[in-house]
C-alpha cells in the first residue's frame, strides 16, 4: 500500500472511539500505537482498516464496524438457542434491537442465569467457547447444606466425575445461612453442567446458579433479561484475548452448559 492509499492512522483511531483526533496523534507520537505488531510513530502513516490490526497500549482496537458484541444477563427459564425446536423461550427476544444476526457464545442451561455473550464474530466466539484457550468463567451457586472449608479445598483439589476428574481454578465460600450456602467457583472447563455436577459430587446440590464473569467481562448491575452492547474497553479486552489465541485449533468442542 502506498502512502496515498488507506486512511490516516489517527483518523482510524478517532473513528474507532479511542479518543479525540488530537489525543490519538499524541498516542502515536508517544509510541503507544502498534499496527500489525509494529510500533508506528509517524503521524502521516496510513492503514487499511479492513486488513490491518491496531492496538493501543497492548489493547486491540475494533476497526471492523460490521462486528457486534452484546452482553446479555440471561434469565432463568430461557434456553441458550436462537430457535428452540421444542418451542421453549429462547434468545431471539433479546436480539431484536440489532440488525445483525447474532449468535450465543457457549451455553447456560435453562435454569442458570447470568452473563452470556452474543456476537456475529465467529473468530472471537471460537476463542471464548473453546476450553483449550483457558477462558475463565466465574459462577455463584446457592447450594443446599452448610459448606465447610474442607469442601472448598476438595473442589480446588479436584473431584472425580463420570467423564473424568475436574478441579476448580478457584473456589471460596461467600456465605452460609441456615441450611444453604453461597459458593463462588472459577472454572475454565467447557464440560456440560459442570458446576452442578461438581457441587452434587461434594454433597451440596445447586439450588440457584448465576454466571457473573466470562473472561474479562463482568455482569455488573445489568438486570436479568436485559442486553447491552459492550463498551469500547470491553470490546478491546475481548479482541486482545482473541488475537492472542492465533494458531489455536480450528474447530471448537461442544459449548459449555454449566
UniProtKB/TrEMBL annotation:
Lineage: superkingdom: Bacteria
SMART domains attached to this UniProt entry: S4
InterPro entries named among the record's database cross-references: PsdUridine_s_RsuA/RluB/E/F_cat, PsdUridine_synth_cat_dom_sf, PsdUridine_synth_RsuA/RluA, PsdUridine_synth_RsuA/RluB/E/F, PsdUridine_synth_RsuA/RluB_CS, RsuA_PseudoU_synthase, S4_RNA-bd, S4_RNA-bd_sf
MF terms in GO: isomerase activity
Matches recorded under Pfam families: PseudoU_synth_2, S4
All copies of domain RNA-binding S4, residue ranges: 7-71
EC number: 5.4.99.-
Keywords: Isomerase, RNA-binding
NCBIfam families: pseudouridine synthase
Family: Belongs to the pseudouridine synthase RsuA family.
Protein name: Pseudouridine synthase
Organism of derivation: Microbacterium plantarum
